[in-house]
Amino acid sequence: MKNSLADRSSGGIICAALITIFFFSGPLHSQEDLVSLSVKKIAPPSSLLATDHKYDNGNSISLSWVPSIDDALMNNPIVAYKLYRSSNDTEPNLIAELPPGSSYFLDNGVSTDNSYSYSVSASTNAYEVLSNRTESITPQSEWINYNKKYLFLMVMIISGAIMYFIVSAKRGKELFVRKIAGLEAIDEAVGRATEMGRPIMYIPGIQDMDDVQTIASLTILGRITRTIAEYDSKIFMPVARSLVMTAARETIKASYQAASRPDSYSDDMVNYITDEQFGYVAHVNGLMVREKPATVFLLGAFFAESLILAETGNSIGAIQIAGTARPAQLPFFIAACDFTLIGEELFAASAYLSGEPMQLGSLKGQDVGKAIAMFFVLLGVLAATVSAAWDIELFNNLLDNLNELFS
Amino acid sequence: MLLLTFSDIGLIVTLVIIAAGLGLILKLALKGKEIDRRIIFIFIFFSVASPIIFQIKFSEKATAVVKSIYDKIDNLPEGSKILISFDFDPAMAPEVQPMAIVLGRHALIKGHEVVFMSLWTTGQSLLTEIINEYILPDFPEKQEFIDYVTLGFKAGNEGVLKVIATDFKKMFPVDNNGRPLDSIPIFDGVKSCSDFDLVISIGGGKPGPKEWILFVTDPSNIPMAVGVAAVIAPQMYPYYPAQVLGIMGGVKGAAEYESEFIGNYERFKDMKTPGLLTMGPQTLAHTVIMAFIIIGNIIYFRKRKKEAKS
Amino acid sequence: MRRNIPLAVTFVVGMLLIVSVFLPPIETIGEDFGVFFSIIAVFAFFLGGGNLIKVHFGKIMKKSNDWEFSLVTVVGFFAMLIIGLFKIGAPGDISTSVTAEGSYFQEMFVYLINPLQSTMYALLAFFVASASYRAFRAKNREATILLVAAFIILLGRTPLGMMLTGWIPESFSIFQVPNLAVWIMNSPNLAGQRAIMIGISLGVVAMSLRLILGIERTYLGGDDKG
Questions:
Q1: What would the mean pLDDT of A234-239 be, rounded to a whole number?
Q2: Distance from CA of C15 to the nearest CA of B (A)
Q3: Which residues of A215-230 are buried (b: 16+ CB within 10 A; e: fewer)?
Q4: How far apart are CA A103 and CA A369, in angstroms?
Q5: What is the spatial distance between Cα C105 and Cα C45, in angstroms, rounded to a whole number?
Q6: Are residues A105 and A244 in the same domain?
Q7: Which positions 188-217 of B are in contact with A (Cβ < 8 Å)?
Q8: In the beta sheet, which residues pair with residue A51?
Q9: End-to-end alpha-carbon separation of chain A, Å?
């Protein structure tokens, strides 16, 4: 009873909607059409198709359908499309509600162990009309994701170039690597601390060992502490992560051993402070002001604390060598430090300092990647500009292809 | 008759004092003397504190990049599901908390179902504080679990995001108070993040908005909006408008959103607007910084002239 | 041996993670490794926490320089740990959320940690001013461009920008300072940032390859000889 009342009231709404359309659209509908439509329910969505989503682990099924013809009407009565899924021919469950106009859905809640059938309904505020149910489908798992073929190609080219230069460097080919001022200054900075009899402070950023910047920082630490051990200077290193503490101790210990000064090493060189960003900063700032290190290294992943640390270092007159791959923090380091390693220079530093041909070769390989990036940037700018200005088909297609390549 | 309010008098007094102080320093600068950093600090302290004390506010107008977030929330049909992640700590809170408050209010007044969560350890306490003290008092009619729910903090950084992108309940089997998600009405029909109509991440560190875009909303094509600390805003622009529909950057972003919100909702006309209030200190502090940059250059050119002569 | 095992682990895991991007059956392996890392990091915290207590307890015992600060650290550490662990003051039983309204943990968070962290972050306002004063000087052509850009951004981020240039007609609205500021952020700044990001990404690739192939082994505490 309740339903039929509701049907009638929504029928009234539809009727009103159609009358509006009638007045606005001229003689498209006859009076007879209106009467017949006003008592009809809305049309169901049709041609529901369930297909296995390609190149996945068998955990998704693509669904597409043709929306109800009533969906295009003015004062659209449809409020949602409801998707139902039945697994292994059991009772269907509602899995999603989509807004009017929808015609596609990717069901990620499936597995290769079951078979599924689907139906979709167009739903008004009062009732819903169901489509036909699809055939049963079992999702398949594929071994290779061919959608990522271009990414694979890119990985191969760039990695291949890096490997090529590593191998040719190993064979003795001379490679030119430009001078990096910040790294050239390390010896001088360590020497200055030794002369002044003051310690060196090393801050490896505030991220854990799962951040590649922290690893890069520890590789540089290994090289720097070798020099520090040789000069017999003092180093102290407050850290914000426990794992970094253990890794840094190992690194420094090995450097002291390599410099034949194992007795000078002490675990107290590296101390864990706190994971809490500004608690750490407060401690480090206090330490800087009290211990007055002659040289401060700020190498790793830094966030809002970068300027607070660098300005405090500046105020005590320390030589500061900083480096990070967080672009937002680079301006602060450049403003407050003597030398700054910008982005990639942080990752190149260890290889650069080692002077080893194989390591330098890997830096050279990066240039191939840069050349490729530059080529595509120029091509993309050209295609987008010409396409926007003159709408030439060749360039429109080029732009589409580039978009597909990098999507 | 000219009527001056408390704020107007405060603004005039502040400007006079700052101008007089800067005048004195300029006099020293013309002699080529460098300024001690502590003097700069005093000026900054004064220019930040006085607008707060005198409640000096400036008007704001929403720019397109902020307005798009406002319009999205305003135009979503009632009952839409919105996920708001508070990915910040108390340190960043003064800058981004105003965004969290106004977004929460806007989503609730429009009748959306809001899920709050955090990827930061300290986010859990902030969630409790912001929701209970700033948002809910204005909505006594809203019911937990039906209109909003707090999931709290979950450890695992990007790992959490990768999981909830495909299976929400795998990472959050229960809410902040230990209630199973299966028994929470908001989560009916929610399997993954794709079932939300809008995801908003407010933060600036890591994990934060960038990780949300990379691991969740971009791969699954979910509408995403971000609120970030001003210093992070430039990094968000590459994602706008394809991957994020709008960006609120720093207190200015918050202030723009607040002005749009209070302008359109009579009920909140007189609400506290921390974003707009913080624009006072920002405006004066920027002015003072610009003044010191000019003074710094005067000193530099004086010195250069002296060196050239000698 | 001591170094070969970590090198082998690095190689196997590194290669596995690279190929997992292209192989759907193992595409979620990265998430699993992420979870393993979180678990290991939690255990490592005992090392960190232990070290913290050892160092500061030692300082207090020896009454060495600034031992009072160490006392504050140790007391703070245990106070927060005990209050959080036993959920002191929290309404209801032990299953209640540690941050529930009324719990001492939440109170300490709101009234201690919150203002302390905000204070540290607020130092930025002062340091930004002193750093800008020193850094933005028209020493050469590039520095002058930087100086002008800084001025536009500083003005554009405040209502002053609109007050000063709001009179510029709509057809030339790009010259209004706030719009000019957005343009600087969106175009020249973004172009530079993207170039840096491309460089960083390639740097990470090269660094990762050096690590996976065992060419770079300093982080394992070893020397660089193959």
A1: 95
A2: 20
A3: bbbbbbbbbbbbbbbb
A4: 41
A5: 20
A6: no
A7: 189, 191-192, 194-195, 204-206
A8: A62
A9: 53
**Cross-strand partners of A18:** none
The reply to whether A406 falls in a domain is no
Inspect the interface and report whether the beta carbons of B92 and A304 lie closer than 8 Å: yes
ipTM of model: 0.89
pLDDT digits (tens, 9 = 90+) for A39-55: 467 889 999 999 998 88
Q: How far is C4 from chain A (nearest CA, A)?
A: 15
Q: Give CATH for domain B64-268.
A: 3.40.50.10160
Is pLDDT above 60 for C226? no
Instruction: Answer whether residue A167 is part of any domain.
Output: no
Residue C113, pLDDT score: 87
Q: Which chains touch A (3 or more CB pairs under 8 A)?
A: B, C
Q: Which helix (H) or strand (E) holds A256?
A: helix A242-258
Find the length of chain A: 407
- For C:62-101, CB contacts with A below 8 A are 65-66, 69
Identify whether the C-beta of residue A218 lies closer than 8 Å to the C-beta of residue C219. yes
Is the same domain home to A217 and A302? yes
- DSSP assigned state of B132: I
Q: What residue type is assigned to position A381 of the chain?
A: V
- What does the DSSP 8-state code read for residue C109? I
Is there a domain that residue A388 lies in?
no
Same domain, A24 and A85: no
Question: How many other CB atoms are there within 10 angstroms of residue C225's CB atom?
Answer: 7
Q: Where are the domains of chain B?
A: 6-57+277-309, 64-268
- pLDDT per residue as tens digits for the range B126-177: 888 899 888 889 898 998 889 999 998 887 778 788 888 878 888 888 888 8
> Quick one: A195 and A97 in the same domain?
no
Q: Which residues contact B257 (CB under 8 A, 6 or more apart)?
A: B62, B66, B69, B70, B99, B102, B103, B248, B275
Residues A138 and A195 in one domain: no
* Whether residues A27 and A52 fall in one domain: no
Cα B123 to chain centroid distance, Å, stands at 15
Range of the domain at A2: 1-40
Assigned domain for A385 exists: no
